[in-house]
Amino acid sequence: MRSIFSYFKNFKGDKNNLFVTKPNNAIYVAISSIHGRGVFAQQTIKIGDIIEECPIIKMKLQEMTVRKQMLLNYYAFMIDENNEYTGIALGYGSLYNHADNCNATYYFDKEKELMIFEAIQSIEKNQEITINYLGPESAGQSIENWINKPEL
Fold first, then answer.
1. Which residues pair with 31 in a beta bridge?
2. For 86-134, what is each residue's pLDDT tens digit?
3. How many angstroms separate the CA atoms of 61 and 114, rounded?
4. Does the predicted model carry a pTM greater than 0.90?
5. Is 105 in contact with 120 (CB distance < 8 Å)?
6. What is the DSSP string of 104-140?
7. Closest CA relative to residue 85, chosen from 75, 76, 98
8. Which of 123, 103, 128 is nearest to 31 (CA)?
């Protein structure tokens, strides 16, 4: 049986170049009062703490928009300034619910190709962790105008 690293031989050239991330035991997924499932704090999370580092499945935005009704569109993040690429965050990354006044933010680490989720408020044990879907600099902004755009 081949090692998993043998599959990446041509991709990265060296198994030591692969970035490995571990699950965070400080969070869990449960039923949310906001919508469906959500991500919750297993313990108190302080401002500035990294909540989760999620690998991204990267794809061209054009590939996603061709299939406008595809369910994955609702879970994708924009990951570049030119709006050329989008990504699906693995781990719990695509399960964080929206709140205008969120308690966490996110950003894309281009070098490691990870979506990083970070606390911007203290988050109590069993409190839902939320992000603003409009983007990392949008905490406090309402998503209603964006949702009601006719082209969506």
1. 37
2. 788 888 998 999 998 899 999 988 888 898 999 999 999 999 999 988 7
3. 17
4. no
5. yes
6. EEEEEETTTTEEEEEESS-B-TTPEEEE-TT-TT-TT
7. 76
8. 128
